[in-house]
């Protein structure tokens, strides 16, 4: 294949349109006005307890005032927001919303003679904090999955780093970066496909992407400094991102620092800060206490159901690895028969092809040990994990963190990883649970838990909790 042929125009799978960005703005406008309407309706419903008069002309100004927020989002780069991760986007949205509603509350006191109800303002802010991210995420994901929305990007370098980058971009739709082609000077790769993406040609054929992609990702960590500098200077793209070979190192909450002309990367170890550990505990208690109280009737009903269907206790106890190597007793609603261990050995002996799957996932898709009916129901919606809220209240576990594995499961991981995860408190849910659920093998479990530990923030915890609530409604990966 000749270089000239490779430099022919490239057909992109993503057509760049402006209307999806307009649609994202309109979705936020709709969510804001809906939040205001919901706040007024709730306040009117509370009128018997606290009399108030809400007149439509009175709130027309507020209906216009809340539209400042999409303008702020625009200047913060959230429209369309390509290249911004879901956790970072959530953080920016929340900070901006709190700031704007704080300004509106101040304006109401100083300039508007308190014509707006404080209750309506606060309720609008609360509804907006929930509605805006939810509707925006839903709309964005639908548009990206259908190829309507997204930023076409070209990856320079079809080696290991480029391959890992492409795989990540295709999996993480939230970023909105759609890889459409590789460029690499290795002629043996020309015409091949990596992660379903064609290797178009050498780096010199970059002109084929001019005007078709706005972002160039350089994933050639072995390139010498002078050639990399020249390459960056000669690229005619609005945005050029250099990807170093730093896979496995923290990526969230890294800040570039100018050390008198020297580029430095400041990496913050968030979980080492006492204030962050306290914040994480406060978040645990704020959610676990009401959830534990609300789930008590469900736990009682399920416990009776288990007793009626299977002999043995309704609750299951097991010692697992906790923080700092301490032994942790976890509690679950029993979903398996009392002689589960003997049943497992007998099943694996009779079905040797399932033994490999067991040692890869430590789960079986058709597990004969599970109690029919109640056991399958509890595992599908993860209700069997609800008793671990007691572990959270006791301080043994957190809501979010690496799962506390049985010791036979832990011993399958490298010693370095076991030491890393022992440094943090285990959790009821975690990153690989919301991304892969039961389909995550040992490699995925190690990669996702490592990412979580090294990139922890309260925003990442909130993101995982929200994803957990959504994923429990889907049967995918639940068995």
According to DSSP, the number of beta strands is 12
Largest sheet features:
6 strands, mixed
Instruction: Kindly give the count of domains.
Output: 3
In order across it, which strands form the biggest sheet?
Answer: 3-4-2-1-5-6
The radius of gyration is: 26 Å
Structural class: alpha/beta
Give the mean pLDDT.
Answer: 83
Oligomer: single chain
- The end-to-end span amounts to 49 Å
Shape: globular
Q: State the order of secondary-structure elements, H for helix, E for strand.
A: HHHHHHEHEEEEHEEEHEEHHHHEHHEHHH
**Proportion of strand residues:** 5-15%
Residue share in helices?
Answer: 40-55%
Low-confidence stretches: 1-9
Query: Helical region count?
Result: 18
Give me the secondary-structure topology.
Layout: H1 3-6, H2 19-45, H3 56-65, H4 68-75, H5 86-110, H6 118-145, E1 151-156, H7 160-171, E2 177-183, E3 193-194, E4 197-201, E5 215-218, H8 225-234, E6 239-242, E7 254-258, E8 263-267, H9 274-309, E9 315-321, E10 327-333, H10 340-350, H11 353-361, H12 374-380, H13 389-394, E11 398-400, H14 407-410, H15 415-422, E12 427-429, H16 431-435, H17 442-454, H18 458-471
Parallel strand pairs: 1-2, 1-5, 2-4, 5-6, 11-12
Antiparallel strand pairs: 3-4, 7-8, 9-10
């Amino acid at each position: 294949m000749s270089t000239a042929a490779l430099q022919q125009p490239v057909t992109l799978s993503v057509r760049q349109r402006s209307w999806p960005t307009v649609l994202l703005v309109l979705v936020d406008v709709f969510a804001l006005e809906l939040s205001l309407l919901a706040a007024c309706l709730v306040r009117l419903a509370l009128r018997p307890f606290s009399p108030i008069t809400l007149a439509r002309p009175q709130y027309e100004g507020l209906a216009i005032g809340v539209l400042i927020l999409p303008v702020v989002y625009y200047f913060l780069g959230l429209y369309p927001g390509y290249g911004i991760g879901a956790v970072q986007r959530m953080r920016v949205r929340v900070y901006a919303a709190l700031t704007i509603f704080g300004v509106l509350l101040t304006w109401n006191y100083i300039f508007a003679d308190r014509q707006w109800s404080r209750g309506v303002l606060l309720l609008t802010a609360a509804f907006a904090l929930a509605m805006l991210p939810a509707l925006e995420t839903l709309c964005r994901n639908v548009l990206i999955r259908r190829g309507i929305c997204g930023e076409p990007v070209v990856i320079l370098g079809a080696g290991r780093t480029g391959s890992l980058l492409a795989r990540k971009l295709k999996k993480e739709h939230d970023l909105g970066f759609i890889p459409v082609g590789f460029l690499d000077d290795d002629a043996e790769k020309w015409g091949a496909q990596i992660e379903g993406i064609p290797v178009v040609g050498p780096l010199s054929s970059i002109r084929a992407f001019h005007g078709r992609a706005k972002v160039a990702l350089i994933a050639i960590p072995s390139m010498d400094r002078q050639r990399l500098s020249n390459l960056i200077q000669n690229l005619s793209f609005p945005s050029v991102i250099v990807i170093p070979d730093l896979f496995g190192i923290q990526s969230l909450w890294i800040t570039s620092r100018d050390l008198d002309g020297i580029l430095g990367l400041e990496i913050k170890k968030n979980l080492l800060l006492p204030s962050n550990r306290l914040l994480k505990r406060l978040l645990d208690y704020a959610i676990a206490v009401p959830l534990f109280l609300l789930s008590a009737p469900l736990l009682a009903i399920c416990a009776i159901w288990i007793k009626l269907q299977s002999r043995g206790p309704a609750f299951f106890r097991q010692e697992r690895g906790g923080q700092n190597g301490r032994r942790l007793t976890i509690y679950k609603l029993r979903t398996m028969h009392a002689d589960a261990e003997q049943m497992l050995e007998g099943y694996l002996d009779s079905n040797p092809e399932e033994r490999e799957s067991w040692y890869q996932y430590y789960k079986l898709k058709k597990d004969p040990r599970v109690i029919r009916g109640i056991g399958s129901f509890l595992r599908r919606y993860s209700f069997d994990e609800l008793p671990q809220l007691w572990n959270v209240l006791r301080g043994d576990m957190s809501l979010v963190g690496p799962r506390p594995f049985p010791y036979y499961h832990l011993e399958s991981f490298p010693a370095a990883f076991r030491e890393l995860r022992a440094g943090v408190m285990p959790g009821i849910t975690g990153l690989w649970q919301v991304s892969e659920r039961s389909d995550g093998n040992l490699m995925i479990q190690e990669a996702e838990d490592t990412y979580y530990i090294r990139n922890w923030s309260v925003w990442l915890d909130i993101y995982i909790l929200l994803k957990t609530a959504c994923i429990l409604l889907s049967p995918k990966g639940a068995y």
